[in-house]
Design goal:
The protein is globular. The chain has two domains: 141 residues, Nuclear Transport Factor 2, Chain: A (Roll), CATH 3.10.450; 117 residues, Nuclear Transport Factor 2, Chain: A (Roll). A six-stranded mixed β-sheet has the order 2-1-6-5-4-3. A six-stranded mixed β-sheet has the order 8-7-12-11-10-9. Helices cover 22% and strands 39% of the residues. The protein starts with a helix and ends in a 13-residue tail after the last strand. It is an alpha+beta fold and 272 residues long.
């Protein structure tokens, strides 16, 4: 009995060790690079995927090699958050897309979940010209490329996953008619939505006075080391959306949002 127990324990330990090696920052960055190679080459060969792979595009389920994998092209710009604990990533990007022979830049976000050394979830949000709400300005988003989102914060200055997610959730709560508990914003704080700069020049990220309801909230990817979290919601109960929050010294300093198209019941499949 002892021998059987030890063998089983060794297998579990080995599996956990292999998973830990897969989920390092460097390895997760490799998965991001492979994903964008798959998009640009229109071939899934570069990306190791799990048999139970789930893919959505603007909240609608699709299949490997379909949708944006056919139309997407070169990524002009990327910024990513890396979650080594949950083995996931979230990348905001400006990517060329070709439809009916016409190439246009799109504003894009993709979440990857890695399990057992393979991608098991791909959640894509695409903002196209002429799309819903007109939050589309790829050049303005490119102008933010020098913002330092990805440098790791010193240990003493890092906030916990629970804290940054709570603050992000308070941000979504602050769209209420009379919000009582606002998140902690830096001064200044700036926000971009679909590339469009939507805060005043003096930098105030509070949406107080704008009454909207954001449903299906979840925080599947948080980069504690860099001080970033990603809040997925249905913006005003309709648009699939992700907000990226950058924290410094426990305060929200930047917000970047990417909207998908208006699709009925557009939520990640596990939430239906």
């Amino acid at each position: 009995m002892m021998k059987t127990f030890m063998v089983g324990a060794a297998i579990v330990a080995l599996s956990a060790s292999a998973e830990a090696q897969t989920c390092t920052r460097d390895n997760l960055k490799t998965f991001i690079a492979r994903y964008f190679t798959a998009v640009e080459t229109h071939s899934m060969a570069a990306l190791p995927t799990a048999p139970n792979l789930r893919i959505t595009e603007n909240g609608v389920e699709t299949r490997a090699g379909e949708g944006f994998f056919k139309t997407g092209g070169h990524a002009q710009f990327q910024r990513s958050l890396i979650d080594t604990e949950r083995c996931g990533t979230l990348t905001e990007a400006v990517v060329d897309e070709t439809v009916d022979g016409v190439t246009m830049p799109i504003i894009f976000a993709v979440r990857l979940k890695i399990a057992g050394g393979r991608v098991s979830e791909i959640e894509q949000l695409v903002t196209r010209k002429g799309g819903t709400m007109n939050f589309y300005d790829p050049q303005a988003l490119l102008a933010t490329k020098d913002q330092d989102w990805e440098s790791l914060a010193p240990l003493a200055q890092r906030s916990t996953r629970e804290y940054v997610n709570q603050q992000a959730d308070k941000y979504f709560d602050s769209f209420a008619d009379d919000p009582k508990d606002l998140p902690t914003f830096a001064t200044p704080c700036h926000r971009w939505e679909g590339g469009v700069h939507t805060t005043a020049k003096n930098g105030n990220c509070s949406p107080k006075g704008l009454v909207l309801t954001h449903t299906h909230r979840r925080f599947p990817v948080t980069d504690v080391e860099a001080g970033i979290t990603a809040g997925f919601i249905n913006f005003n109960q309709a648009l699939p959306d992700v907000h990226m929050f950058k924290f410094k010294d426990g305060k929200i300093v930047w917000i970047q949002a990417v909207f998908g198209g208006r699709v009925q019941d557009a939520v990640w499949p596990d939430e239906k």
